[in-house]
Amino acid sequence: MIAVIALSPALDVTHHVDGVDWAGVNRPASVRAVPGGKGPNVARTLRALGADVLLLGLAGGSTGAAVQGGLQEAGVPAVFTQIAADTRRTFAVVDTRRGEVASFYEPGAQVSAPEYARFVASYAEVLPRCTAVVLSGSVPPGLPATAYAELTLAASSAGVPVVLDTSGEPLLHGASAGPAIVKPNLAELATAAGRDLRWAGRRDQAAVLAAAAQLRELGAHAVVVSLGAHGLIAVTRDGAWHALPEPVPGNPTGAGDAAVAGLAHGLAQGSPWPERLRHAAALGSATAAAPIAGEFATHHYQLALEKLRVRQMEQE
Amino acid sequence: MIAVIALSPALDVTHHVDGVDWAGVNRPASVRAVPGGKGPNVARTLRALGADVLLLGLAGGSTGAAVQGGLQEAGVPAVFTQIAADTRRTFAVVDTRRGEVASFYEPGAQVSAPEYARFVASYAEVLPRCTAVVLSGSVPPGLPATAYAELTLAASSAGVPVVLDTSGEPLLHGASAGPAIVKPNLAELATAAGRDLRWAGRRDQAAVLAAAAQLRELGAHAVVVSLGAHGLIAVTRDGAWHALPEPVPGNPTGAGDAAVAGLAHGLAQGSPWPERLRHAAALGSATAAAPIAGEFATHHYQLALEKLRVRQMEQE
Asked: What is the pLDDT of residues A135-158, one digit of tens each?
């Protein structure tokens, strides 16, 4: 079983409006409210892959109830620790005429120490049955920046490998705790490594590999850097690879989460790195090609898999 | 007791953003989620006036639960008939840098015939204890345009006077059922009367009075037209009056609902028309002067009351 941790899930509300009046009243043509945040997205993708997955999260208030209800509808097994604060919403306004999206991210719900202690207890109970753990998303208010590091150490003690997808201090602390994989995007890697990074092609390779090596030196066993349309770079003990997908038009929201799901899936199955990276990159592409964030069509995945090029990179 | 009917309440979510990026990610500085829609606004104002009020509504899903929880917090007694569909949200983005507000109104929740029958039963049960009924807001999907007319007839049978604040077909049907007061704004009155209307001063008086007379001919005992910053015009059996407030800068959202609360309050107390109209217009002004839609400060109300001019109008 793969456990996906959602410390700060969200209710993602999307309004489609044909030509937004930003200083007036709008009546959206369609309204959608689904569980969101990185954890629920990763769990949905794993579920779609047929993996045995359990979402473990924190939820509170009426939006927390909506998140739980939505996951149940989607057939994603989930266990939530109840918190007093209201689970956050995200609002996205899609202007279908201009092709623009405005997003509004509410801050995460405050978590108290006793609430978090109850969550950690339920996590510890589940760990012995896990083949992998995914720690994904920001650390909500009330919890220390070391929260993911502590959850990583607990998993290690139980012999369970961890995929960590976060940023800033929680990424640095978490990497030090020895996760199997950390998955920063390029901006997150740049912040973590304290250097400017860009990806315009192979000439930027050395700088990216060096920054990834810094996170490995901290303690991460492997670093997978997501480059958006430019695919994924994995820097591991066994070598470094770049999985480069065919360009697809589409919605990049959730593509990174789909890649994390693919990495966890491959990790739990023990698949070799080139294959694991291909799987993760194809899931990312297929998710970007889908009209709705966090979903993907099997034929898009198959097509992306065929068209992907994975090349081994020279590490200095 | 004044019963306020909320067939289509909402959860009003407001994000304050300092300079919105309409094509990117925004992190609101403040987030507020409160019960909204005309009925809850009217009920809150009546509660603030110390009136004995009961909100009777339809609510469903997690947003319905949030509306119910919010009313309980605000100390507004409410009885809700549960429906299967999710209660709607409204979403307002206040750009504090530009001083602009974008609003997004989700469509009302679908109501089934058995759900509505249960609501009507609870309404009938409450009527004998009522001194006035307020029917306010749009008719949600699933209900006929005659819904307010039927609720008005039921109140009349119980000897309870009705204040009706709606628009379009439900206003025309409702007026025919003989409510004590209908409260259209100028645009709603124009639509109902089938004529262009504007208010730039006394020269537009004859046209507005004639349009109001049409609604009285349909069956409404009195017509109160809200003119925004230009106050209220009442056309009644006893005469016609214009209550003209001092101009106040502020937020007009909910000012019309506060005026409806004032009208119902005066109706239940049997206060004479000039006084009733003064009360309603002052509540509207005080609500517009408050920073948050649907709330008002007592000193603003007192000040507005002092500064208001009520003049009797000549009816042709």
From this structure: 999 999 999 999 999 999 999 999
Contacts of B260 (CB under 8 A, 6+ apart): B38, B42, B134, B136, B163, B165, B183, B280
CA-nearest of B314, B4, B291, B290 to B137 is B4
pLDDT of B145-200, one tens digit each?
999 999 999 999 999 999 999 999 999 999 999 999 999 999 999 999 999 999 99
Query: Which of A25, A63, A106 has the CB atom closest to B105's CB atom?
Result: A25
Tens of pLDDT along B11-36?
999 999 999 999 999 999 999 999 99
Q: Binning pLDDT at 50, 70 and 90, where does residue A294 land?
A: low
Bridge partners (DSSP) of residue B57 are B6, B80
A214 and A113 in a single domain? The answer is no
CB-based contact (8 Å) between A10 and chain B?
no
Beta strands B181-182; B25-26: pairing state: unpaired
Examine the domain organization and report whether A196 and A114 are in the same domain: no
Q: From B72, B103, B131, give the residue that closes a domain.
A: B131
Residue A64 Cα, gap to closest chain B Cα (Å):
9
Give the model's pLDDT for residue B288: 86
- The amino acid sitting at B232 is L
- The alpha-carbon gap from B62 to the nearest alpha carbon of chain A, in Å, equals 5
Select the residue from B14, B15, B17, B22 to test the A interface by mutation, using most A Cβ atoms within 10 A.
B22
Best B89, B104, B106, B110 member to test A by mutation, with max A CBs in 10 Å, is B104
Q: Is residue A160 part of a domain?
A: no
Domain range for A196 is: 180-316
Of A69, A100, A107, the CB nearest to B22: A100
Q: Are residues B184 and B76 in the same domain?
A: no
CA angle A140, A144, A145 (to 5 degrees): 85
Flag whether pLDDT at B316 surpasses 60. no
pLDDT in tens, A255-286: 899 999 999 999 999 999 999 999 999 999 99
User: Is A316 among the domain residues?
Assistant: yes
- Boundary residue ending a domain (A130, A156, A190): A130
The single-letter code of the amino acid at B117 is: A
Q: Does A304 touch chain B (CB under 8 A)?
A: no
Active-site residue flag, A257: yes
Decide if A136 is inside a domain.
no
Q: In angstroms, how far is CA A39 from the centroid of its own chain?
A: 6
Q: State whether residue A247 is helix, strand or coil.
A: coil
CATH number at residue A101: 3.40.1190.20
pTM over 0.90: no
Helix B255-269 crosses helix B38-48 at what angle (to 10 degrees)? 60
Contact B66 A63 (CB under 8 A): yes
Q: Is A75 on the interface with B (CB under 8 A)?
A: no
Residue A282: inside a domain, yes or no? yes
**Contact across the interface for B26 and A106, Cβ inside 8 Å:** no
